[in-house]
Specification:
With about 350 residues, the protein is α+β, with helices and mostly antiparallel strands. It contains eight helices and 13 strands.
Amino acid sequence: MLRTVMAFGLASMVFAAPLQAEPAAKQLFGAKKRAADLASRSFGSYTRGCLAGGKMLAINGPAWQAMRLSRNRNWGHPKLVGYVERLAIDAKANDNWPGLMVGDLAQPRGGPMAGGHRSHQIGLDADIWLKPMPDRRLSPQEREDISAVSMLARDKLSVNQKVWTQGHVRLLKRAASYPEVARIFVHPAIKKALCEAAGKERAWLRKVRPWWGHHYHFHVRLKCPRGNGGCVDQNPPPAGDGCGKQLDGWYAMLRNSLKPKKKPTKPAKPAKPRRPITMAQMPAACRAVLRAKDEPPPAGTAMAGGNIDPGLPWLQGIQGVTMTLQSTPAEGVPLPDRKPEPEPELNEAPQ
């Protein structure tokens, strides 16, 4: 009898105690300021995974400058960092492109972000601005404040010929030309402009896919590196250049989204917020990535007249730099021209 009472009392204590919710994965990964000191590997999918042994893209290079440094998202798989560096140098040397302004890659250990992206989790995605790089070194504050430039005309169905150039066509063609590239996401109007300018050489257009909102930058996605078990690739794009019925389908959706909306007769129910991803929903290897010790700081990079660590901590010591960590986009960051859509998951639609 006594044993039964004790067991009942213990069970009551257990069920009466409040259940402690597991922290959102975005909080855990966002708190890591350095890469995991592990061999470089991507785990999981572009929208649910993490990165071991990430490499930081230098904030300055011979043909690129990293933007929005306070976010600490200029990290990626070494294959991605090498791709960005090679594209920047090749485009400057061969296509007369002044240089790349590089937006978000990934967090030091990948994983979900507190704001701005659903993908970019395994270090194989990069956002590259469509605005040419200026011919001078930008200050840290300028990198926070300068806005990208939309390529859309006022009708939001075509590109603005005042800012869209043949240089953009050459840059995107080169960006798609490397074999490691799986996809490049651009706004449907940009895809249409590329289709019209491509001429007879059209194979590269297959990789360039339309997606909502990508009119300030283009989004590069690399394939999983060879031999990288545990990395989940996206299905290949459909055959063809994507300039026919596939693009027509996007334009039908685009025109529909631009139609004036009828005033609702009664207040709409607010959409339920998306539940944040927990570690239980992440690949098992991501726990080890979080637990791993920090990779040693990279060698200092010359900037602002001295050698400094180009990671996040040095920014906190520069007067006037506005920190915008992980909450909402920094002031001046371009926002979509309509309600944000989910970023591409394993297959975008329409195909």
